[in-house]
Amino acid sequence: MKAMVLFSGGVDSTTCLGIAVNKYGAENVVALSISYGQKHQKEIECANKIAEYYGVEHLYLDLAKIFQYSDCSLLMHSDKEIPEEAYSEQIKKTNGTPVSTYVPFRNGLFLSSAASIALSKECDVIYYGAHSDDAAGSAYPDCSDAFNNAINEAIYVGSGNQLKVEAPFINLTKAEVVKIGLDLKVPYEYTWSCYEGEDKPCGKCGTCIDRAMAFELNGVKDPAMELYKA
Ligand SMILES: [Zn+2]
Predict the structure, then answer these.
(1) How far is the CA of 43 from the centre of ligand 1 (A)?
(2) Residues 206, 40: contact at Cβ < 8 Å?
(3) Which of 102, 128, 133, 143 would you label with 36, given CA atoms 20 to 30 Å apart?
(4) In which domain, by residue range, is 190 found?
(5) Rounded to the nearest whole angstrom, what is the distance from the C-alpha of residue 65 to the centroid of ligand 1?
(6) How many CA atoms lie within 13 A of 164 on its CB side?
(7) For the chain, what is the domain count?
(8) DSSP state of 26
(9) Read out DSSP for 41-107?
(10) 134 C-alpha to center of ligand 1: Å?
(11) In angstroms, what is the span from residue 146 Cα to ligand 1's centroid?
């Protein structure tokens, strides 16, 4: 069995990578990092470091062009500000529509692209790190259980029953994801979550706030923040 992991260099996908390496062995895991035209390359740099740490094959794909018509605040060509508040606050104002950092159908596009590459690389399964906090209030509808079931079905059928999609955290919170990763000794010190590409995480954007909370709920200090403090 061989696994492909959609791998951004953040907490969730790095935990996915840890699970896949633990289950299949590093030699049977391919990490795929996809650039979507985000404002910074920081997460790709971090992804490189982590792939090297695990000793897995690491592929890179640039899909930035597909998002050229979007004004999502995460994209380089957008002049929209990235909101400085928790998702739980943001979704109170969105009336069930996605948050402003939702990149249009990103996971759908990423998983379809990954499916094509995974078949060429003889993988049997694709892992990705969607979890229930991101799906809450439809902040990111392409992280939901319903989306995951539908895309899994589409990829399984469309690949001639050769390829499945695994979202091991689909019903878990980010804190529960971190708990699994801490047990697996995932190198969180190398991960990057912040939407801003400064030298240090901003501590104010939705994903920085979520990340801090996830470590706090596990009663541990975020090893990356400890590293940046030093
Ligand atoms: Zn941030």
Answers:
(1) 12
(2) no
(3) 133
(4) 3-229
(5) 25
(6) 6
(7) 1
(8) G
(9) SHHHHHHHHHHHHHT-EEEEEE-GGGGTT---TTBTT--PPPP-S-HHHHTTTTTTSPPTT--TTHH
(10) 16
(11) 28
What pLDDT digit, counting tens, does each position of 89-124 carry?
888 877 788 877 888 899 999 999 999 999 999 999
- Is there a contact between 114 and 151 (Cβ–Cβ < 8 Å)? no
Q: What is the pLDDT of residues 120-147, one digit of tens each?
A: 999 999 999 999 888 777 788 888 999 9
Determine contact, residues 45/73, Cβ cutoff 8 Å. Answer: no
Question: What's the one-letter identity of residue 74?
Answer: L
In the reported structure, the alpha carbon of residue 186 is separated from the centroid of ligand 1 by a whole-number distance in angstroms of 21
CA 196 – ligand 1 centroid, Å: 6
C-alpha of residue 191 to centroid of ligand 1, in Å: 13
Tokens of 139: 């902040």
Q: How far apart are CA 79 and CA 6, in angstroms?
A: 27
The domain that holds 151 is classified in CATH as: 3.40.50.620
pLDDT in tens, 34-87: 998 887 788 889 999 999 999 999 999 999 999 999 888 888 888 888 888 887
What CA–CA distances, in Å, run from 200 to 24, 158, 197?
33, 42, 8
CA 163–ligand 1 middle distance (angstroms): 35
214 CA distance to ligand 1 middle (Å): 14
Centre of ligand 1 to C-alpha 210, Å, is 10
